[in-house]
Amino acid sequence: MPHTAPPLSGGSRPVPPRSTVAVLGPGGIGGLLAALLSRAGHRVICVAAEETARTLRRDGIRVHSAQFGDFTAAVEADMLLREPVDLCLVTVKQTALDAALDRVPPHLLDEGYVLPLLNGVEHLDTLRKHFGAERVTPAVIRVESTRTAPGVIEHGSPFLEIDLAVRHEPHVPLAALLTSAGADTRVVPDENAVLWAKLAFLAPFALLTTRYGLPIGDIRSARRAELEALVEETTAVSRACGAPTDATGILARYDAFPPGSKSSMQRDAEAGRPLELDAIGGALLRAADRHGIPIPLAERLMADLEGR
Ligand SMILES: NC(=O)C1=CN([C@@H]2O[C@H](COP(=O)(O)OP(=O)(O)OC[C@H]3O[C@@H](n4cnc5c(N)ncnc54)[C@H](OP(=O)(O)O)[C@@H]3O)[C@@H](O)[C@H]2O)C=CC1
Ligand SMILES: CC(C)(CO)C(=O)C(=O)O
């Protein structure tokens, strides 16, 4: 998948032989990264609810991946983080973030870094309040990965990409650590560019696939005009927020997805789970309102989805 924002150097520094990484929420993306980091030789502590923690301690994490193959990785797991770690990946849904943060006492990250991989833009405020602004590295992930049962992960996309918004190289070489696990990781100097490039791309994908219950292949063919109009809206908001996002590039990215790909919001809808509507569509509407940008199509889709 082509990236949109210009990279900085930073992915090539040596990785500490064995880092200790906590994963708060070992689900679709957290479980995949936990397993890959463990397989790469790092110490991984998953922080999860009781049943999931018990299952992970007993069975490890089983990954089925077209990109990385099928493998099982041993991880530690607990309901509460009890010791300092080099890095804490935050990989819960936005709807579970406040409750999940009770499991990670902030002082345990005094020397480490927090890497949130949630979709959306507004969770960073919550995390900065909890851990302190200097501990949190904004980031986004591009992948399609599903937790089909506790500790069982189906990684469906032929890619796993992470963009880190880092102005100054953190003490822990985060990019090299993630690269060592197999993630195609880039360091980009601009937080807005990283977060809004993802949201401008994700919001049309998530809202349309969820609204119509169709995978991206059907949306980009049968509902092309709607998709293009919505991308015009999201890129206008993104540009107003200071992120130079271009509609043509986003449409090309949709076209490169395997046709059966679904958004995580769509998978949540299918499973009857709460949707991250506020984190994705709500954040978009609020930003459009702040900048006086009309986005009627996004508003209509949000109203449809809220009324489901
Ligand atoms: N899945 C994907 O392909 C992609 C997802 N994203 C984003 O990544 C984020 C995570 O999504 P995803 O991995 O799909 O989510 P999942 O629902 O698969 O995983 C979330 C995990 O959080 C755990 N969890 C929920 N509440 C708590 C809590 N209070 N304490 C501890 N753990 C908790 C769940 O536990 P349990 O297992 O016990 O239910 C689950 O393991 C979202 O913001 C999503 O939008 C971004 C790109 C792609
Ligand atoms: C669109 C996709 C699959 C890209 O990673 C995503 O971020 C999501 O569905 O949450």
Q: How would you describe the overall organization of this protein?
A:
This is 2-dehydropantoate 2-reductase. Pathway: Cofactor biosynthesis; (R)-pantothenate biosynthesis; (R)-pantoate from 3-methyl-2-oxobutanoate: step 2/2. This protein has 308 residues and is an alpha/beta fold. It has 2 domains: 20-189, NAD(P)-binding Rossmann-like Domain (Rossmann fold); 194-306, N-(1-d-carboxylethyl)-l-norvaline Dehydrogenase, domain 2 (Orthogonal Bundle). The protein is 44% helix and 18% strand. It has 12 helices and 12 strands. The protein has helices at residues 28-39, 50-59, 97-101, 123-131, 174-181, 191-212, 216-222, 224-240, 247-256, 264-271, 277-291, 296-306, and strands at residues 20-24, 43-47, 61-65, 69-73, 76-78, 87-90, 113-116, 139-142, 145-149, 152-155, 161-165, 184-188. The strands form 3 sheets. It has a 5-stranded parallel beta sheet with strand order 5-2-1-6-7, with helices on both faces. It has a 4-stranded mixed beta sheet with strand order 4-3-10-9, with helices on one face. Strands 8-11-12 form a 3-stranded mixed beta sheet, sandwiched between helices. α5 (174-181) links the parallel β11 (161-165) and β12. α6 packs across α11, α6 packs across α12 and α11 (277-291) runs antiparallel to α12. The two termini are 32 Å apart.
